[in-house]
Amino acid sequence: MNGFNLCEDAKIIADNSKKDIGVKRIGAEYVLKSVTSNGMAVISVHESVYTKEEMNNILRKAIEQSGSKNLTIDDLSQKIIDQSTERLCQIYKADVFVKDGGSFKVSYAYKNGEIFHTVLARKNNCKAIIIQ
Question: Whole-model pTM?
Answer without folding.
Answer: 0.86
